[in-house]
Amino acid sequence: MSDALQRGERTVTDVYDEHARMLYRIAFTYMKNRHDSEDALQECFLRYIRGKVVFADPQHEKGWLIVTLTNICRDMLKSKYRQHENLDNHTDLAVPPPETSALMEAILKLPDRYKAAIYLYYYEGYSVKEIASMLRQPSNTVKTRLSRARKLLKNELGGDLDV
Amino acid sequence: MSDRRFVDAYNRIELDPASADRIRSRLEQELLPGKENEPSMKTRKILRTALIAAAISVLLITSAYAVSGVVRGTGTHIMKDTGSYDTLADLPRVEKIAGYPVTAPEKFANGYGFEELYLGGEEAFGENFETLKEYYSVMVNYVRDGKSDLTLDLSPVLDLPTEREAPAPTAAKEIRGVEVRYSRDHYKFVPPDYEKTEDDLADEAAGHYYVSFGSDEIEEYDFSFADFELGDVKYVFHDQSGRDADFLYEMAEEVIAAYQAENPAA
Fold it and tell me: A98: distance to nearest CA of chain B, Å?
């Protein structure tokens, strides 16, 4: 097996098995359909393989994967739309798939820049500081985005959401 | 602490096991010995300008192999203040963040017009994958008649040695005192079980021909490039429609003329 498979103590496929589901869920919040989400996931790991980046720690690696994935999703979305389309409001991309709940439908409608932080905070349970470190963003940026996302979710859900 | 409601909502979004296996197999194939220098790209029509241009750029640089202290490859790098801009009115801000001047016409004589600009982070890494240099790259998308198939990429000239040079250009022309290099690469996207023909092998040896494994069917595309340097900045036109040298030379001339008008001493 090629040496390229090894990343420290783990193989590339170990990393894939660990993070694929997480990355797929994040991709889904951008792409809103299985097919494109799977494409984005695959491309993310192909870049992981080709880029051969050395990571300081597992959190750095996870953050790199998330940022790379979101960049891929945005690039894929850019290719789908004409010049005047607002990428943050592509709510017409698809009919909500059957697996989505009311909360997920609301999350899908959020501007893209809030989605990674929302996932990491509410699903993974990371702190603002940890999210800021992972995504290489200032803590205040993360706080602001979470705050705005919460307001949008509350509005969308008719005030039922209390977070 | 995670929120149960969000956990339940996200848990409904599940990666299909068969798809997960298919992707894993694709990754394992990418990692086969000898594959690390082969290009591999998606062929789905939705992957356009930014994705393909980025992949080709990585391919051209990562074909260099490692000697201590030299660039082994470049890749995406997390940096602050990256993002998209939908107007060139933001160019001063982009230039301030990037740290170098950006010459990007609003519209070219051939009808291509500005669509969007993306400011991204990149790094050049050495043989142990250590970061040698991190820098900002600027990718400007252009569109004509609704077709977004042309980008103008900018990055600082890397004053770092590479062991292996990029493939020699197909042609070159001096325009207003600046050398503009043109290349056209042919990509053949093939299924995983495809066997290269004698013609494939001969064309690969000749250069500017790449067989890329992983697509569902055989598809072939031409991509053309024109690159030049203005000051300490490298400019590269990426044309997904594979047009000829004169087409890109004319666009390069407009960029060079605009740059020289802003920098008379250049």
Answer: 9
The count of residues in chain A is: 163
In a domain, B11, yes or no: no
Q: Give, as one character, the DSSP assignment of residue A93.
A: S
Tokens of A18: 């660990």
**B10 in a domain, yes or no?**
no
What residues of A are in contact with residue B3 (Cβ under 8 Å)?
A: 122-123, 163
Range of the domain at B97: 16-262
Compute the nearest-CA separation of B22 from chain A (Å): 10
The sign of the torsion formed by the CA atoms of A67, B46, A21, B36 equals negative
> Residue A52: closest CA among chain B residues belongs to which residue?
B129
Distance of residue B42 Cα from the nearest chain A Cα, in angstroms: 8
In this structure, the strands spanning B178-190 and B209-213 are parallel
> In chain B, how many domains are there?
1
A2-18 pLDDT, tens digit per residue, is 344 445 567 888 899 99
Q: Interface pTM (ipTM) of the complex?
A: 0.78
Residue B6 lies in a domain: no
pTM score: 0.50
Please report the pLDDT score of residue A97 as a whole number.
Answer: 58
Give one DSSP letter per residue of B137-196, joined into a string: EEEEEEEETTEEEEEEEEEE---S-BSSPPPPPSEEEEETTEEEEEEEEEEEEE-TT---
Q: What gap in Å lies between CA B154 and CA B137, rounded to an integer?
A: 6
Overall average pLDDT of the B104-127 stretch: 86
Nearest residue in A to B39, CA atom: A50
Task: Tell me which CATH code domain A3-156 carries.
Answer: 1.20.140.160
Note whether residue B3 is domain-resident.
no
pLDDT digits (tens, 9 = 90+) for A56-90: 788 888 888 998 898 888 888 776 553 334 444 44
Separation CA A156–CA B3 (nearest Å) = 18
